[in-house]
Amino acid sequence: METLKAVCPHCNNTNTIPIEVAKKEAICEACSQALTDTTPVVCDEEGFKKHIDENDMVVLVDFYSPDCAPCNAMAPDFEAAAKNFPLEVRFLKIDTTMTPEIALRYGVNELPTMIAFKNGVELNRFVSALPKAQLEMWAESLIQMDFR
Ligand SMILES: [Zn+2]
User: Fold this and answer.
1) Distance 6 CA to ligand 1 centre (A)
2) Which of 15, 25, 28, 86 is buried deepest, with most CB atoms within 10 A?
3) Closest Cα partner for 117 from 102, 131, 132?
4) Of 8, 28, 43, 71, which is the active-site residue?
5) Strand ranges in the chain using DSSP code E only, listed in sequence order
6) Domain of 139: which CATH number?
7) Could you confirm whether 68 is annotated as catalytic?
8) How far is the CA of 32 from the centre of ligand 1 (A)?
9) How far is the CA of 131 from the centre of ligand 1 (A)?
């Protein structure tokens, strides 16, 4: 049985779910909330590590700051793009004022910066805000990558 590991966007529990049911009724075994929820998750250090290391799916992280105008302008597009990729791409947000050490570790010094990860490894990044259509194209290209 093919399975997918998915970290819960609500409680950070790592779930292993059969691929066949993944899209339909993926419910977290710890908190009973939907794993298919696409609302970008604002992560602390622990949540960030779990999501990038333990998800089988690509994780797209937006490094932002609440007082950054381009970041705030992009936020609705980021959230809207995420809706198209339940259990295919997990969209996260890192508030660089709350967890500056994560931004420092990845050399993020301009906002917004977005970094795509797979199995804890950086795939690529964009250093600028992107409109919804381009975010979707990027996410789509990440799914198509051959990771084997
Ligand atoms: Zn949960």
Assistant:
1) 10
2) 28
3) 102
4) 71
5) 3-7, 14-18, 41-42, 58-64, 89-95, 113-118, 121-126
6) 3.40.30.10
7) yes
8) 6
9) 30
34-55 b/e (C-beta count within 10 Å ≥ 16 → b): ebebbebbebeeebbebbbebb
Active site residue 11: no
Work out the average pLDDT over 9-14.
Answer: 97
Q: Does 53 fall in a domain?
A: yes
pTM of the model: 0.94
Is residue 17 in some structural domain?
A: no
pLDDT at 21: 75
Range of the domain at 104: 37-144
Domain count, the chain: 1
Backbone angles phi, psi at 60, to 5 degrees: -110, 120
